[in-house]
């Protein structure tokens, strides 16, 4: 590819036509480009993780109540804002490393499409606005969980992401706090079964993500802790987490409370639950687990199993 710059058409400098027109047009559209880059940097696909706030109200059979649904939706929106704020600040901090990564170099800040100052400013505003929005409502439980999430994500960005094993637990903890927030938002207590399954599921997904990242050439140089893992170790952790999670879920599904009219529905839900786990393992082994949200959005067999699982859980809860 030649470094020579094509000569400008005659008269273009004198008349202001030719190349000058596209430059003027680009300036006019700069605001739209910045807005688009900012939206991509906020990673809206990652908001899928925040759907965990609906898990506790849903399994408690409360999503049919307008108040519970409204608070769950509010918690979802707040976690979307908070998580996007952390992504923006993290991208500013890691821009240099991201430029050396095969996929992360396309992120708006690393690619030079978004100003670090703008990303940092919007990210900070989102982090402040999310907990501030809860204060007038007086929901102290939700506020505490949201602040805890922000503290954990900040600690992860500054310190924990460089500590082997602890980084896995920290990211998994962020997922668990999303699920806890759903219960805190409407004041529903969380069962031990719920917490164990969610915690192990979060560890499974995070470990699968790290394993896929480690398979990416050169990725270990962009994440300090990643290079200290081995594929065999991450596979063992993934296997352990999924095995314990399946056992826990089976115990919950087969332990029907007294008076449950359709106990068999919970039992049947074990089948799609195990299929979801097995499908995820297969995809990680194929090396496509680096972006879990992409798997959820694109893998049709996984989607069908997940829909069947949610439907059976919903029937088991709402038909009681």
UniProtKB/TrEMBL annotation:
Subcellular location: Membrane
GO molecular function: glycosyltransferase activity; transferase activity, transferring alkyl or aryl (other than methyl) groups
Swiss-Prot/TrEMBL keywords: Glycosyltransferase, Membrane, Transferase, Transmembrane, Transmembrane helix
EC category: transferase
Primary site of residence: membrane
CDD domains given in the database record: PT_UbiA_2
Gene3D superfamilies given in the database record: UbiA prenyltransferase
Membrane topology type: Multi-pass membrane protein
Pfam families in the cross-refs: UbiA
Span list, region Disordered: 1-29
One annotated Gene Ontology cellular component of this protein: membrane
EC number: 2.4.2.45
Keyword Transmembrane helix: yes
Segments crossing the lipid bilayer: 70-89, 110-135, 141-159, 166-187, 193-210, 231-254, 260-280, 301-319
InterPro entries for the chain: UbiA_prenyltransferase (IPR000537), UbiA_sf (IPR044878)
Protein name: Decaprenyl-phosphate phosphoribosyltransferase
Species assigned in the record: Streptomonospora litoralis
